[in-house]
Amino acid sequence: MNVSLQTNHSVSFCAKNSDIKKADKIMRTTRNVFPMQSCSFIDTFYSSKKARSQGFVKKLSDKIWKKIDKIRTFEDKLFSDEIKYKYDDIKIGYAPTILGLEQLKAGNCHEASVAVLAALAANGIYDGKEVNLFVDTQFMNKKTKQIEYWHRDPIDHALVVTAMGKENPRKNDLIVIDPWLPYCDSLSGAIGKYNQVFAKNKMREAARMNRSLFRVSMAERHLPFDEDNYEMIQKIKVNLDRPLTARSTKELGDFCSQRHPELIID
Q1: DSSP state of 198
Q2: What is the structure's pLDDT at 8?
Q3: Which whole-number Å values give the CA distances from 168 to 122, 127, 187, 240, in the listed order?
Q4: Which of 42, 101, 117, 174 is the most core-located residue (most Cβ within 10 A)?
Q5: Residue 46 lies inside a defined structural domain of this protein
């Protein structure tokens, strides 16, 4: 049985912005150099379908996750026999992830983001960082127009944000590279995409939880609460304030370009 491990979301191949075109080319090149199976995609893909092969799908997903878990914990026994490397290589941030991807060809959104960060650095772009998403939920008083409740709920999905090496970039210069979807666009364009992709489930879950939390917070302050008096405002946003740990460092770029010169684009 052949199972597609890639999503069907379109990529911005026809983007007019030259930086977006370059970022898109780097992303596609990275996906070719580091093909990987994703258990999170399998779980997402089959969660909405009553497939007869659910048993097989679960076994496949579990098998892929075991590989990803090995990459993330970097077990020495995994690499000792199959891959030859220098000790200094292991001290380079996220070089072990690259080695794991070479060997096991398995990864979720985090591993895919690290591969893109390495490819950006291999092309001399060192401002890339791994970030995640969150659901921003607010309750606004309809009469006073004041926000009386605000909460961020993180979404378990990693992606890359870069200004493609621009100095003193503005927010409008930021480009989102999401190799898991796969998708590449400006920050504003990507936010619109994410509000479509995740709106149905993630926003509904956040709405239900935050509605209850708001009601409890009002009760604790002995304040009356009538939901009809409030407007709930929800958006999915990219978490630029608190980036994750992975970066497109020069050391990682040099390490990766030596092993995979095909990552360097014209």
Answers
A1: S
A2: 44
A3: 21, 11, 16, 15
A4: 117
A5: yes
CA 87 to CA 176: how far, in whole Å? 33
Residue 186, domain extent:
18-263
How high is the pLDDT of residue 202? 87
Q: Which one-letter amino acid corresponds to residue 78?
A: L
Q: What is the DSSP string of 30-69?
A: HHHHS--B-HHHHHHHHHTS--TTHHHHHHHHHHHHHHHH
From the CB of residue 191, how many other CB atoms can be counted at a distance below 10 Å?
A: 16
Among 24, 17, 26, CA closest to 248:
26
Beta-strand runs (E) in 111-253: 129-141, 147-162, 175-178, 183-186, 230-238
The sign of the CA dihedral 150, 151, 155, 161 is positive
In the chain, the amino acid numbered 264 is: I
Cβ 106 vs Cβ 68: under 8 Å: yes
pLDDT per residue over 145-202, tens digit each? 999 999 999 999 999 999 999 988 888 899 999 999 899 999 999 998 888 877 778 8
Quick check: is 13 in a domain? no
Residue 9's pLDDT is 46
| pLDDT value for 87 | 45
Domain presence at residue 3: no
Inside any domain, residue 12: no
Q: Check: CB of residue 60 under 8 Å from CB of residue 23.
A: no
For residue 200, the model assigns a pLDDT of: 74
The answer to whether 158 touches 68, Cβ cutoff 8 Å, is no
pTM of the full structure: 0.84
Please state the domain count of the chain: 1
Which pLDDT score is estimated for 259?
94
With a cut of 70, list the residues of the chain below it in pLDDT. 1-16, 45-54, 75-91
Q: Which of 256, 85, 240 is nearest to 176 (CA)?
A: 240
